[in-house]
Amino acid sequence: MFGRITPIVKNLLIINVAIFLVPTFLNMDLGRVFGLYFIYSENFKPVQFVTYMFLHGSNMHLLGNMLLLFLAGPMLEYSLGSKKFLILYMVTGLGGGILYTAANYAEMSAIKNDVDRYISAPNSQSFNELMVAHSDNVYNQNIYLFTDQYSRNENNPELISRSIGYARGLYAYFGNYPMVGASGAVYGILAMLGLLFPNRQVMLLILPPIKIKYIVGFLIIGEIFAEFQRTPGDNVAHLAHLGGALFAWGLLRYWQKKGGVFS
Which coarse location class describes where this protein primarily resides (predicted)? Predict the structure, then answer.
């Protein structure tokens, strides 16, 4: 797991770091253009299923993904060969985007239904329930003050109109928030390691040797828990991570049926 750096891993590290530094020189937010948007957003383009995986939202986001790629990638590239390793990286990155998009579609459909239901019969209680159910980070102090004002004057036409604007803005906010990161591809690499070399032991800092299957299992279970017990303010695309792992399993099965993983 800690072997010498291999060609594809090295090039992926360079590409990801270079793209992260581009906005510094061009003074532009690449994530707003090439991040993965909701498929019905006016900002969505199919190419974003590829471009999103080479973008990162912060120094720590980049560092975490690149560190895992650096540690886990060389062993897998050496075993699979550079061609299959690159295929794995791209397929699992796409898989992360696909699963995230499918879940995002279901979530956005639910939000749209609730927004449409509110607009058809607006009242202060329904508005408060809508905001509490879906707003998360956008439920700020201004919304809180407006909700209080609206509850005291819910028949005021101006307040009703503003509440409808807030409701529509809620749908627009979530529909225009791009997802970025190589985590789907990185989790695909980790999952493939766990599937191919489950009992191989690695050293993690001062801990005793640990089998890869336990490390990967812990990470995937953690992602499942984090997704279904999501805390307020958690903007991590856990389903993209899980999608990468799931597509790694599917790709492994495909290779096995086509004549072998290491052929």
Answer: membrane
Domain count, the chain: 1
Q: Residue 203 belongs to what domain range?
A: 1-230
Q: Per-residue DSSP letters for 192-248?
A: HHHHHSTT-EE--TTSPPEEHHHHHHHHHHHHHHHHHTPPTT----HHHHHHHHHHH
In a domain, 180, yes or no: yes
pLDDT range class, residue 95, cuts 50, 70, 90: very high
CA separation (Å) from 42 to 33, 104, 177? Answer: 11, 15, 12
Q: Nearest-CA neighbor of 182 among 41, 38, 47, 67?
A: 67
Q: What is the mean pLDDT of residues 130-148?
A: 71
Is 256 inside a domain boundary? no
Q: How far is CA 139 from the centre of its chain?
A: 22
In CATH, what number is assigned to the domain containing residue 178? Answer: 1.20.1540
| Separation in Å, CA 114 to CA 76, 170, 241, 254 | 46, 11, 28, 41
Is 146 within the bounds of a domain?
A: yes
CB atoms near residue 3 (< 10 Å): 14
In a domain, 16, yes or no: yes
Instruction: Please state the pTM of the whole predicted model.
Output: 0.84
Q: Give the lowest-confidence range in 41-55, 100-114, 140-154.
A: 140-154
